Amino acid sequence: MRFNGDEIDFVQNNGDLQLILDKVDNFTEEEFDLMNLREKYGIPQNAVITIAGTVGVGKSTMTKALADALQFRTSFENVDTNPYLDLFYEDFEKWSFHLQIYFLAERFKEQKRMFEYGGGFIQDRSIYEDTGIFAKMHWDKGTMNKVDYETYTNLFEAMVMTPYFPHPDFC
Questions:
Q1: Taking 60 as the threshold, does the pLDDT of residue 26 lie above it?
Q2: What pTM did the predictor assign?
Q3: Which terminus of the chain faces fewer neighbouring Cβ atoms within 10 Å, N or C?
Protein backbone atom coordinates (compact mmCIF):
# COMPACT_ATOMS: atom_id res chain seq x y z
CA MET A 1 0.00 0.00 0.00
CA ARG A 2 1.31 3.46 -0.81
CA PHE A 3 0.62 6.94 0.58
CA ASN A 4 2.36 9.86 -1.12
CA GLY A 5 4.90 7.43 -2.56
CA ASP A 6 5.83 6.03 0.86
CA GLU A 7 5.52 2.30 1.45
CA ILE A 8 3.43 0.96 4.33
CA ASP A 9 3.42 -2.72 5.23
CA PHE A 10 0.87 -4.33 7.54
CA VAL A 11 2.28 -7.15 9.61
CA GLN A 12 0.17 -9.50 11.72
CA ASN A 13 2.05 -10.45 14.89
CA ASN A 14 0.28 -12.41 17.65
CA GLY A 15 -3.01 -10.71 16.73
CA ASP A 16 -1.61 -7.19 17.06
CA LEU A 17 -1.44 -5.05 13.94
CA GLN A 18 1.87 -3.28 13.54
CA LEU A 19 2.56 -0.49 11.09
CA ILE A 20 6.00 -0.39 9.58
CA LEU A 21 6.66 2.92 7.91
CA ASP A 22 9.68 3.54 5.74
CA LYS A 23 9.10 7.30 5.68
CA VAL A 24 6.48 9.31 7.50
CA ASP A 25 7.57 12.86 6.71
CA ASN A 26 5.04 13.40 3.89
CA PHE A 27 1.89 12.00 5.54
CA THR A 28 -1.05 14.30 6.02
CA GLU A 29 -3.20 14.31 9.15
CA GLU A 30 -5.98 12.60 7.14
CA GLU A 31 -3.63 9.78 6.12
CA PHE A 32 -2.58 9.25 9.74
CA ASP A 33 -6.26 9.19 10.78
CA LEU A 34 -6.91 6.46 8.19
CA MET A 35 -3.97 4.40 9.43
CA ASN A 36 -5.06 4.91 13.04
CA LEU A 37 -8.60 3.75 12.20
CA ARG A 38 -7.27 0.54 10.68
CA GLU A 39 -4.79 0.04 13.53
CA LYS A 40 -7.38 0.85 16.21
CA TYR A 41 -9.69 -1.89 14.95
CA GLY A 42 -6.97 -4.30 13.75
CA ILE A 43 -8.11 -4.18 10.12
CA PRO A 44 -5.46 -5.40 7.70
CA GLN A 45 -5.30 -3.85 4.22
CA ASN A 46 -6.24 -7.19 2.62
CA ALA A 47 -9.42 -7.72 4.68
CA VAL A 48 -12.77 -8.54 3.10
CA ILE A 49 -15.56 -7.19 5.27
CA THR A 50 -19.19 -8.14 4.71
CA ILE A 51 -22.24 -6.10 5.65
CA ALA A 52 -25.21 -8.43 6.11
CA GLY A 53 -28.90 -7.70 6.47
CA THR A 54 -32.31 -7.84 4.89
CA VAL A 55 -33.45 -5.92 1.82
CA GLY A 56 -33.70 -2.18 2.43
CA VAL A 57 -31.89 -2.09 5.77
CA GLY A 58 -29.04 0.10 4.45
CA LYS A 59 -26.32 -2.43 3.51
CA SER A 60 -25.28 -0.49 0.41
CA THR A 61 -25.09 2.82 2.29
CA MET A 62 -23.02 1.23 5.07
CA THR A 63 -20.80 -0.57 2.53
CA LYS A 64 -19.97 2.68 0.74
CA ALA A 65 -19.40 4.65 3.95
CA LEU A 66 -17.11 2.01 5.44
CA ALA A 67 -15.20 1.57 2.17
CA ASP A 68 -14.69 5.34 1.97
CA ALA A 69 -13.50 5.49 5.58
CA LEU A 70 -11.01 2.64 5.11
CA GLN A 71 -10.16 3.38 1.46
CA PHE A 72 -11.28 -0.11 0.46
CA ARG A 73 -12.98 -1.14 -2.77
CA THR A 74 -16.68 -2.05 -2.79
CA SER A 75 -18.52 -5.12 -3.99
CA PHE A 76 -22.25 -4.69 -4.46
CA GLU A 77 -24.82 -7.34 -5.26
CA ASN A 78 -25.91 -6.82 -8.87
CA VAL A 79 -29.64 -7.44 -9.07
CA ASP A 80 -30.16 -5.56 -12.35
CA THR A 81 -28.79 -8.39 -14.49
CA ASN A 82 -30.36 -11.27 -12.56
CA PRO A 83 -32.54 -13.19 -15.07
CA TYR A 84 -34.46 -15.01 -12.32
CA LEU A 85 -35.46 -12.23 -9.95
CA ASP A 86 -38.71 -11.16 -11.67
CA LEU A 87 -39.64 -14.78 -12.36
CA PHE A 88 -39.02 -15.64 -8.72
CA TYR A 89 -41.34 -12.89 -7.46
CA GLU A 90 -44.05 -14.21 -9.80
CA ASP A 91 -43.76 -17.83 -8.56
CA PHE A 92 -41.58 -18.53 -5.51
CA GLU A 93 -41.97 -22.31 -5.63
CA LYS A 94 -41.09 -22.63 -9.30
CA TRP A 95 -38.06 -20.32 -9.29
CA SER A 96 -36.53 -20.38 -5.76
CA PHE A 97 -34.01 -23.11 -6.63
CA HIS A 98 -32.99 -21.41 -9.89
CA LEU A 99 -32.59 -18.08 -8.11
CA GLN A 100 -30.45 -19.58 -5.33
CA ILE A 101 -28.21 -21.40 -7.82
CA TYR A 102 -27.78 -18.16 -9.78
CA PHE A 103 -26.86 -16.25 -6.59
CA LEU A 104 -24.45 -19.00 -5.55
CA ALA A 105 -22.64 -18.87 -8.91
CA GLU A 106 -22.48 -15.05 -8.98
CA ARG A 107 -21.33 -14.74 -5.37
CA PHE A 108 -18.74 -17.47 -5.81
CA LYS A 109 -17.26 -15.60 -8.81
CA GLU A 110 -17.27 -12.35 -6.83
CA GLN A 111 -15.62 -13.92 -3.77
CA LYS A 112 -12.98 -15.44 -6.03
CA ARG A 113 -12.37 -12.07 -7.72
CA MET A 114 -11.96 -10.25 -4.38
CA PHE A 115 -9.46 -12.75 -3.03
CA GLU A 116 -7.53 -12.92 -6.31
CA TYR A 117 -7.32 -9.13 -6.17
CA GLY A 118 -5.75 -9.40 -2.71
CA GLY A 119 -8.65 -8.29 -0.55
CA GLY A 120 -9.30 -4.76 0.61
CA PHE A 121 -13.06 -4.93 -0.03
CA ILE A 122 -16.30 -4.11 1.73
CA GLN A 123 -19.17 -6.18 0.31
CA ASP A 124 -22.91 -5.80 0.80
CA ARG A 125 -23.86 -9.48 0.68
CA SER A 126 -22.08 -12.71 1.56
CA ILE A 127 -22.11 -16.08 -0.12
CA TYR A 128 -22.76 -17.55 3.33
CA GLU A 129 -26.07 -15.74 3.78
CA ASP A 130 -27.77 -17.65 0.97
CA THR A 131 -27.40 -21.13 2.37
CA GLY A 132 -27.81 -20.24 6.03
CA ILE A 133 -30.67 -17.78 5.64
CA PHE A 134 -32.38 -17.55 2.26
CA ALA A 135 -32.27 -21.12 0.93
CA LYS A 136 -33.12 -22.43 4.39
CA MET A 137 -36.04 -20.00 4.60
CA HIS A 138 -37.39 -21.34 1.28
CA TRP A 139 -37.06 -24.90 2.55
CA ASP A 140 -38.74 -24.01 5.85
CA LYS A 141 -41.59 -22.15 4.12
CA GLY A 142 -42.10 -24.91 1.55
CA THR A 143 -41.16 -22.76 -1.45
CA MET A 144 -38.20 -25.06 -2.18
CA ASN A 145 -38.65 -28.82 -2.18
CA LYS A 146 -36.37 -31.24 -0.34
CA VAL A 147 -34.50 -32.47 -3.44
CA ASP A 148 -33.74 -28.91 -4.60
CA TYR A 149 -32.69 -27.81 -1.10
CA GLU A 150 -30.38 -30.79 -0.67
CA THR A 151 -28.93 -30.27 -4.15
CA TYR A 152 -28.32 -26.61 -3.38
CA THR A 153 -26.69 -27.25 0.00
CA ASN A 154 -24.54 -30.07 -1.43
CA LEU A 155 -23.33 -27.79 -4.20
CA PHE A 156 -22.63 -25.00 -1.71
CA GLU A 157 -20.62 -27.35 0.48
CA ALA A 158 -18.65 -28.70 -2.48
CA MET A 159 -17.83 -25.21 -3.77
CA VAL A 160 -17.43 -23.16 -0.61
CA MET A 161 -16.94 -25.34 2.44
CA THR A 162 -13.54 -26.61 1.34
CA PRO A 163 -10.04 -25.81 2.56
CA TYR A 164 -9.41 -24.12 -0.81
CA PHE A 165 -11.97 -21.37 -0.29
CA PRO A 166 -11.43 -18.54 2.24
CA HIS A 167 -13.77 -18.74 5.22
CA PRO A 168 -15.06 -15.91 7.39
CA ASP A 169 -13.44 -14.87 10.63
CA PHE A 170 -16.36 -13.63 12.70
CA CYS A 171 -15.56 -10.82 15.07
A1: no
A2: 0.73
A3: C
Cα 54 to Cα 15: distance, rounded to the nearest angstrom: 32
Catalytic residue among 9, 80, 91, 124: 124
Across all residues in the chain, what is the average pLDDT? 79
Summarised one tens digit per residue, pLDDT across range 51-62 is 888 778 888 888
Cα 46 to Cα 21, 53, 108, 136: the distances in Å are 17, 23, 18, 31
Question: DSSP code of 49?
Answer: E
148 is catalytic: no
Q: Are 113 and 95 in contact (CB under 8 A)?
A: no
DSSP state of 102: H
Edge-to-edge strand list for the sheet holding 73-75? 48-50, 121-123, 73-75
| 67-110 residue pLDDT tens | 888 889 999 988 889 999 999 999 999 999 999 999 999 999 99
Q: How far is CA 158 from CA 10, 35, 150, in A?
A: 33, 38, 12
